[in-house]
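Comment thread on ticket #2218

A.B. wrote:
> Attaching the input chain for the structure job we discussed in standup.
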Amino acid sequence: LLAQKEDFQGSLDVLKKMTEDYADSEWLNDGLSLALFLTVGSTGSLEPLKKFFSAERAYGLGSFSMGIEEMKQTASLASNSSLGLEAQTRVLEMSERLSSPTFLIKDIDDFVQNHPNHFAVADLLLLKFRLMRKTKASPDAIVNLLKDFRDRFPGDIRARRVGILIQEFFKDKGKDTKK
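C.D. wrote:
> Ran it. Output below, let me know if you need it in another format.
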């Protein structure tokens, strides 16, 4: 809550105390992740970090266009940093409701090609899967995407579900050829 109110130092102080007092907490990893995000995001000017949280609030409160626009501004302000990359991924994720699926798929492909090792690639590939289903992409293209996900992220908890989806596509394809 303190981070959302732009009290970043207060947030870091609370997170530090949390790691000292509640080292066994199941929330510790989330706290450490937020602390890292605040620390890395506050390098230089605090404006991009403030804009990032403002965009998250706007989007969370249903002002989708405003949230996306502020997140784009964050990506621009912090273009050469991990915060800028995080903002780019959030723009892609936030745009699912408002953007043309075809254009969003292209933007996802561009991001994945330019940042293949970014931690959000798995989420973006699954977003692409949802968009491909919306646009009624060919089953072969969808299966290839799912195979790519499974091959890239075999340890991801969602890989099992992706494997099941691949099998379902093959079952459906078998039914179509029997008709």
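A.B. wrote:
> Thanks. Noting for the ticket: The first helix runs from residue 8 to 21.
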